[in-house]
């Protein structure tokens, strides 16, 4: 059942502190403060390049992972959506690592890419939520998200648990590649161990986000902005809003605004900014100032330091708890899910079964 919630989606959003903790505990040793992946049939220190392939929300988890793997493990990453990868026919090196991310493990485009990579001699590692899925069966190795069954068509807890697995994989890869010493690993894993408690704290912003949803529900178009690992969260926010509220939304890298989309800005367009205070914050802040100067209705998701440093007054601000920038994309996914959920409820759509969509897309 829905555990007392009105929709499966809301139940699944609220399960996140628990399932994130379960997923992490399967890979984290609290005594040694280290990450231990289940045994893999290949050595991570041999990995020279990672090819990431997924669709939809899972592809945004892959995008976050690209930032992590490149900046922390210093291994180059290619990234594609399943439907583009094969037909692009990229040159692939036998022995390279291909990483597939899928909640269902049945998505046709991702599965076809997996079969293509296997035929080319790549090592295929899948991150799936359904342990007995086709992708799990056909991969050389599998890491599972312990999100439990996800019923809502809009993916929520599968996404945040994918990020947890990808964060652990990044740490293990960085260590294997000699890019992370014990202190570095302890710092990153400390950030990860705090995620379940922070996620629970962030759920308490539900009412604030519901109030803001009223304004978003009146809009025809909505923009989401973020930089660095907040950029894929902007894309995810826009996807979530489109699929369940049917409002047109776009996610942009904050720095791309001035290259075109800023022309859309007026007082009718809500601009949702995902801006945890991190090394890129001031850049994002100056993009927000440009939006505010043009009358844009900014909904600012940051922490208290970010709100202090912004320099302009947004239409709405949500002052979230301060979090380690490494894990910020995991946590900032939650307000974005809640906002889309409340907008959809206001719009009266079928939240768990939005029109034209299937939970698992088994055709190309
Ligand atoms: O099962 P998968 O993770 O492979 O599914 C991929 C996409 O179809 C899925 O994430 C889709 O975009 C969701 N409806 C997003 O909420």
Automatic annotation (TrEMBL):
Q: Principal localization?
A: cytoplasm
Subcellular location as annotated: Cytoplasm
Q: Give the top-level enzyme category.
A: transferase
Q: Name one GO biological process term.
A: amino sugar biosynthetic process
Per UniProt, the keywords (alphabetical) are: Aminotransferase, Cytoplasm, Glutamine amidotransferase, Repeat, Transferase
Q: Which domain of life is it from?
A: Bacteria
Active site annotation, chain numbering:
359 (for fru-6p isomerization activity)
Entry EC no(s): 2.6.1.16
Briefly, what is this protein's role? Catalyzes the first step in hexosamine metabolism, converting fructose-6P into glucosamine-6P using glutamine as a nitrogen source.
Tell me, how does this one assemble? Homodimer.
Q: Please identify the protein, giving its name as recorded.
A: Glutamine--fructose-6-phosphate aminotransferase [isomerizing]
Native species of this protein?
Rhodospirillum rubrum (strain ATCC 11170 / ATH 1.1.1 / DSM 467 / LMG 4362 / NCIMB 8255 / S1)
**Gene that produces this protein:** glmS
Q: Which section of the whole protein is represented? A: 244 to 607 of 607
């Amino acid at each position: 059942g829905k555990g007392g919630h009105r929709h499966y989606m809301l139940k699944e959003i609220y399960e996140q502190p628990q399932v994130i903790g379960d997923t992490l505990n399967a890979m984290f040793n609290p005594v040694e403060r280290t990450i231990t992946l289940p045994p893999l049939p290949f050595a991570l220190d041999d990995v020279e390049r990672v090819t990431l392939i997924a669709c939809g929300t899972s592809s945004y988890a892959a995008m976050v992972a690209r930032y992590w793997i490149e900046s922390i493990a210093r291994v180059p990453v290619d990234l594609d959506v399943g439907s583009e990868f094969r037909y692009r026919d990229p040159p692939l090196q036998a022995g390279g690592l291909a990483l597939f991310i899928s909640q269902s493990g049945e998505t046709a485009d991702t599965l076809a890419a997996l079969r293509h990579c296997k035929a080319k001699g790549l090592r295929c590692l899948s991150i799936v939520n359904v342990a007995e899925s086709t992708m799990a069966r056909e991969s050389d190795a599998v890491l599972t998200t312990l999100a439990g069954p996800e019923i809502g068509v809009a993916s929520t807890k599968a996404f945040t648990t994918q990020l947890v697995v990808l964060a652990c994989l990044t740490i293990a890869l960085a260590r294997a590649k000699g890019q992370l010493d014990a202190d570095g690993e302890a710092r990153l894993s400390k950030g990860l161990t705090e995620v379940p408690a922070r996620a629970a704290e962030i759920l308490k912003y539900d009412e604030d986000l519901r109030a803001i949803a009223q304004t978003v529900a009146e809009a025809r178009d909505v923009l989401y902005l973020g930089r660095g690992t907040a950029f894929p969260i902007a894309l995810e926010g826009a996807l979530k809003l489109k699929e369940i509220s049917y409002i047109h939304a776009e996610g942009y890298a904050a720095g791309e605004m001035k290259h075109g989309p800023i022309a859309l800005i007026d007082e009718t367009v809500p601009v949702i900014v995902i801006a945890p205070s991190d090394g890129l914050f001031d850049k994002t802040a100056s993009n927000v100032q440009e939006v505010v100067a043009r009358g844009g209705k900014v909904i600012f998701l940051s922490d208290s330091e970010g709100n202090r440093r912004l320099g302009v007054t947004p239409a709405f601000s949500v002052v979230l708890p301060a979090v380690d920038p490494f894990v910020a994309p995991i946590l900032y996914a939650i307000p974005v899910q809640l906002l889309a959920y409340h907008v959809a409820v206001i719009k009266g759509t079928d939240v768990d079964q939005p029109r034209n969509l299937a939970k698992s897309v088994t055709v190309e």
